Structures are given as C-alpha cells and as structure tokens.
Amino acid sequence: MLGNVVKMLSRPTLCSTQPVLVQSSRNTFVLKRRFPPNLYKKNQKPGKLRGRHFVYDLVEDTTIVKKPNLEVVLTAFVEGVGSRGDVVSLKPNEAYNKLLLPGLAVYKTPENVAKYATEKDEREVEVHSSAYAQRTVNKLESLILAVVMNKDHPWVIEPWHIKTALRKAGYYVPDHAITLPETPITGPDLLKQNKEFYCTVTINNLEKARVRCRLHHWSTEPSDRLPYVFEHWKLDAEPLFGGEGAGKAPDARQDKD
Q1: Hey, which of 5-14, 125-134, 187-196 has the most confident mean pLDDT?
Q2: Are 169 and 147 a contacting pair, CB within 8 Å?
Q3: 98: which DSSP letter?
Q4: Burial letters 21-58, b for 16+ CB under 10 A, else e
Q5: Which domains does the chain have, with CATH numbers?
Q6: What residues contact 79, with CB distance under 8 A and at least 6 apart?
Q7: What is the pTM of this model?
C-alpha cells in the first residue's frame, strides 16, 4: 500500500511547476479619459473619482505604428544597396539584420560619415559602377540566349543580332556594349545548329558579363523548319569553336578569373 502511494506521488502531474520565461515587452498605449473629472481649485482636495472616470479611449498603439527608416553608413560594397561610404536609409529590421549584424554597415554619426567618406575618396578606381551592376552581371551570365538566324539566306552574326535576341529575353543592350567572338560566325550551316558560343556585354563601361549564346536556324516556310525540341535549353550543347577560349572576345578569359 505504501509503495503504491509513493509511485503515485512520483508521477508528473498537470500542476507540476515548469520554468517560465518572463520577458518584458516594450509596448506603449496612449489613452484618453472618455469622461474627464472636474477641475478643482488651488489647495482644494480633489473630488472622488467615479466609475465613469476610468473609461478610456485608445488614442495610439505604438506596436502598430510604422517605425521610421534607419540611416546607416556602408563599410563594404553591398549588392543592390550601395558602395563603401554610402549613406543609405532602410527599414529598421532590414538594416539591423542584413547590414549591422554582419558588420557591413555602422550607424550614421558625423564621425562615421567623415571616416568612410575619406576612405571612399582615397580610392582611385571604383570597383562597381552601381549598386545593381553586379546583379545584372549575374543575371546575364546565368542566361542561355537563343540567337535565331535565317535558314534560307546567308548571314554573318553582328552585334544587332545579339541585341535583338537580348531584347526578346527582356534585356535592352546597345550595340556598342556587345563584343562578339574574334572568329566571324556565318551561315546558314546546319552543323552549327544548337552549338554554343560566348559574347561579352559591357555594363556602364566597367563590368563585363559573358553571355552564353546558342545558335538556332529558322525558316519562314513551315515545311522547311527544323523539328521542335522540347526545352532545348536544358540539353547539353557542344561549343561552336573547338577550344574553350577559341573564338571568344579578347577580354573574356580575363573576366573568367
């Protein structure tokens, strides 16, 4: 009997104490009395408050008020934000989690602004032309560009052909920013169908992106068209020129490093 009582007392119960984390919450509510009490004269004892005097209306809840942006000074280049020494204004959570915690920025103070502005002026060459230039390079280099050429008439690929293909893909690039391979690409030649070559796109006269291009032949006559290949961009393609560096732009290998 005594053993059963000991076993029952040793079992965990619903009322057993559990450690509770008590943490204060920074909340502020601005209230206003719906029925303000009557004023009293100087040195007069205040009147007794009634129940209606404890009825309040909510004026402002600071937990739902939009917090102002936080200004920080960048200590390094951040893609899509800015360069070292730039003063940017971001949402508090974004500035704290993505910039201040990783050490990519510091709070905006006159000392920090002067310090990083001086270091920015001492640099001779700007590494990035803009905050979004590197993102554009990454987008272009991840693209497999379909260059569609005529199957029935002779042609030589020129920069405007690449410009047209990029425009179809949603990128607007001027002719002077496109550098073709040193070896001319002529056709029509069905042996070059779906073969791959590289061209170079220069962004803001500074950054260079190597764009993968695949050659496709097209005919205006439906009966002369080549069979359609489903999701051809997912298939492996042979290089149009024999070696890795053959036929590429002069600065393409340097950008690879």
Answers
A1: 187-196
A2: no
A3: I
A4: eeeeeeeeeeeeeeeeeeeeeeeeeeeeeeeeeeeeee
A5: 52-125 (no CATH), 132-234 (3.10.430.100)
A6: 131, 132, 134, 135
A7: 0.53
